[in-house]
Design brief:
With 151 residues, the protein is mainly alpha-helical. It is 87% helix and 0% strand. The N terminus is likely disordered.
């Protein structure tokens, strides 16, 4: 009984402290491959015990928690990094393929009015950004190009 009392004294380590020290000792004694292997095994075990809805739910919770603790700049930065990493790993064909798939999916999910609306919004944004001279210039270029094609 006296032994149990000693475990709860203030001069003894807390469970948190023992856990931290144990984690540090494990990190010192094992390499990257060890942690990759136990992570893979844990992932496989989790996958065997849970369905798609489980992963959707934890993904949703993680997304909500991240959204609460990060601002617009955080998402811009991770988007930029992800885009750069993707660009380093994929060529033009990759972008053509995902663009085609995205266009097909959008076409399946939207009607003529959707395209009219986004076209109107894009035209307004372009007009605000570039002004009337921009349209005159591209109109002239288009006219010249068409005239050259007719010859």
């Amino acid at each position: 009984m006296a032994n149990r009392k000693n475990n709860n004294n203030d001069d003894k380590m807390s469970r948190e402290e023992r856990g931290r020290m144990g984690g540090e000792a494990t990190a010192e004694n094992h390499d990257k491959e060890f942690f990759q292997e136990i992570g893979r095994k844990g992932g496989e075990a989790t996958a065997e015990n849970h369905d798609k809805e489980f992963y959707q739910e934890i993904g949703k919770k993680g997304g909500e928690a991240t959204a609460e603790s990060h601002d617009k700049e955080f998402y811009q930065e991770i988007g930029k990094k992800g885009g750069e990493a993707t660009a380093e790993n994929h060529g033009e064909e990759f972008y053509q393929e995902i663009g085609k798939k995205g266009g097909e999916a959008t076409a399946e999910n939207h009607d003529k009015e959707f395209y009219q609306e986004i076209g109107r919004k894009g035209g307004e944004a372009t007009s605000e950004k570039h002004g009337e001279e921009f349209y005159e210039e591209i109109g002239e270029k288009g006219g010249r190009s068409r005239n050259n094609d007719d010859k």
